[in-house]
């Protein structure tokens, strides 16, 4: 079996026992990249020289007993986190040649843990999308069916893990951008509580919603990744100084005597029958594992898409104002004066979807509309959070679909933004409430496309989240297939 197909914990054991080396693992990953990357297009930038330097150092550290928790493990980085000396594009023309002078906190933590960086993964431009089709650097394809999208905006990270082009990866989740592509690509993807993982060095889309999290091949790897990246960071004003447990300790615990809620608002008309069947089977597995299933209500869920598409574009409008062609990034050479240079730089530098959201956000924040849109959306957001607080007084966790359909065809929804936005209908509320969520594979459609199930818990209850995800994974025994690319 190729080393690139293994999990973090399997490779950790092999490294400890001297059965392999980090250089060998890295060679296996780049061999796989060479074989499939031109078909899948998971990466924007490959950092092969850096990866082998890190792998050689990892092997020296292992030999001297100084190995860290991720020593020698190739982990791909979504191209939205700053990496010192390596370009960070956000999938945009406007940052095509931007090379950060510093590392994001998450990247720094991975370096300290001994990880190897094979490259920066493709993404929807500035994380604005659900299909990884808006990237300036081209679309990413789903490894399970190259005619399908991998989800977004972290589609490059999800497809890289699914295609064994890395061992694990990180992404960012603003409205479902980790959980949705994880479900569509058949991997595990987790959005931590807002404030649990530092956002320092994460290029902002919507600052009150963005959160960094892991993609992995199983739940145990997800816990290992969370151990490495979670924790307080004084450089991030939204980081919370809450105690971080060893998440791997939750993996062997059962869910006997748990109560798991099923939100009735999430089982609506329009869900693909095969997705619905897979999620219902997952509910039965959870019940068989000892939990009690009850129906709950999240009554304001019907407003979550509308609320999100006011708040997120408003914050994006503010955050993206810094890209003016003056300080860094793309600058148009055709402007005759400063104002024209601003306009032409932003017009040429941003893609259509980013410009669409900037315009929506700018309108929502404009004089005479702020109270009607942004303020009202923020008030409804508070009600959504209250819904979850009330729900978690009745249950330990929530189970729900991740997506209403399996992966759809490339180009199928690009001309219909509303239909694209509705792809995130089951994931957005988690971000608006700031709670953690995880997508775990729960089966396949008849055509072989993966389906995911979503678990949610209360604020800073990632341990419980991993506990139910691991219990489900253990009892479900979903066949671990590999895509044939």
Task: Please sum up the structure shown.
With about 475 residues, the chain is α/β, with parallel strands linked by helices.
Structural description of this entry:
The protein is of the alpha/beta class and 485 residues long. The chain has a domain at 3-252: Amidase signature (AS) domain (Amidase signature (AS) enzymes, Alpha-Beta Complex). 38% of the residues lie in helices and 11% in strands. It contains 15 helices and 11 strands. It has helices spanning 8-16, 22-40, 48-63, 105-113, 155-162, 179-185, 219-229, 273-288, 304-319, 338-349, 352-365, 371-391, 417-421, 428-433, 462-476, and strands at residues 43-46, 75-78, 119-121, 168-172, 188-191, 212-216, 259-263, 292-296, 397-401, 437-444, 450-456. The protein has an 11-stranded mixed sheet, sandwiched between helices. The longest helix has 21 residues, at 371-391. It is globular and about 65 Å long. The model has no long low-confidence stretch (mean pLDDT 96).
CATH architecture of the domain at 3-252: Alpha-Beta Complex
CATH class of the domain at 3-252: Alpha Beta
> Overall pLDDT, averaged?
96
What spatial form do the alpha-carbon principal axes imply? globular
Quaternary structure type: single chain
What's the topology here?
Layout: H1 8-16, H2 22-40, E1 43-46, H3 48-63, E2 75-78, H4 105-113, E3 119-121, H5 155-162, E4 168-172, H6 179-185, E5 188-191, E6 212-216, H7 219-229, E7 259-263, H8 273-288, E8 292-296, H9 304-319, H10 338-349, H11 352-365, H12 371-391, E9 397-401, H13 417-421, H14 428-433, E10 437-444, E11 450-456, H15 462-476
Parallel strand pairs: 2-3, 2-4, 7-8, 7-9
Antiparallel strand pairs: 1-3, 4-6, 5-6, 5-10, 9-11, 10-11
């Amino acid at each position: 079996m190729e080393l690139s197909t293994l999990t973090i914990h399997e490779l950790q054991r092999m490294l400890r026992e001297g059965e392999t080396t980090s250089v060998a693992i890295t060679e296996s990953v780049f061999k796989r990249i060479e074989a499939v990357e031109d078909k899948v297009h998971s990466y924007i930038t490959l950092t092969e020289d850096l990866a082998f330097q890190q792998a050689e150092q990892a092997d020296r550290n292992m030999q001297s007993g100084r190995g860290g928790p991720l020593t020698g493990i190739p982990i791909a980085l979504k191209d939205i986190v700053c990496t010192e000396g390596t370009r960070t594009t956000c999938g945009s023309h406007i940052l095509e040649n931007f090379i950060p002078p510093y590392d994001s906190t998450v990247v720094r933590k991975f370096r300290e843990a001994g990880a190897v960086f094979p490259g920066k993964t493709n993404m929807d431009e500035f994380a604005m999308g659900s299909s990884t089709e808006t990237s300036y650097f081209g679309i990413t394809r789903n490894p399970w069916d190259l005619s399908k999208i991998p989800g977004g905006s972290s589609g490059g990270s999800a497809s890289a893990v699914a295609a064994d082009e890395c061992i694990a990866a990180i992404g960012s989740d603003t409205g479902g951008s980790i959980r949705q592509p994880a479900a569509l690509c058949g991997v595990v993807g987790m959005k931590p509580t807002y404030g649990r993982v530092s956002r320092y060095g994460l290029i902002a889309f919507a600052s009150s919603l963005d959160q960094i999290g892991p993609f992995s091949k199983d739940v145990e790897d997800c816990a290992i990744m969370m151990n490495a990246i979670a924790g307080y960071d004084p450089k991030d004003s939204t980081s919370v100084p809450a105690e971080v447990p060893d998440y791997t300790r939750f993996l062997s615990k059962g869910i006997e005597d748990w109560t798991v809620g099923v939100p009735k608002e999430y089982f609506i008309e329009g869900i693909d029958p095969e997705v619905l069947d897979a999620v219902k089977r997952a509910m039965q597995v959870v019940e068989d594992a000892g939990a009690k299933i009850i129906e709950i209500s999240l009554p304001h869920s019907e407003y979550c898409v509308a609320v999100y598409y006011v708040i997120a574009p408003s914050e994006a409008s503010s955050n993206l104002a810094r890209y003016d062609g003056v300080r860094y990034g793309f600058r148009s050479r055709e402007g005759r004066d400063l104002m024209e240079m601003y306009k032409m730089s932003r017009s040429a530098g941003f893609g259509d979807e980013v410009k669409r959201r900037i315009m929506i956000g700018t309108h929502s924040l404009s004089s005479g509309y702020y109270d009607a849109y942004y303020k009202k959306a923020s008030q409804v957001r508070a009600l959504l959070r209250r819904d979850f607080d009330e729900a978690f007084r009745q249950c330990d966790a929530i189970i729900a679909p991740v997506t209403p359909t399996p992966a759809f065809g490339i180009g199928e929804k690009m001309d219909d933004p509303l239909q694209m936005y509705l792809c995130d209908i089951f994931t957005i509320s988690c971000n608006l409430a700031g709670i953690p969520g995880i997508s775990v594979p729960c089966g396949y459609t008849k055509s072989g496309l993966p389906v995911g199930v979503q678990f949610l818990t209360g604020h800073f209850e990632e341990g419980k989240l991993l506990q139910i995800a691991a219990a489900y994974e253990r009892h479900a025994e979903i066949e671990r297939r590999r895509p044939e690319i």
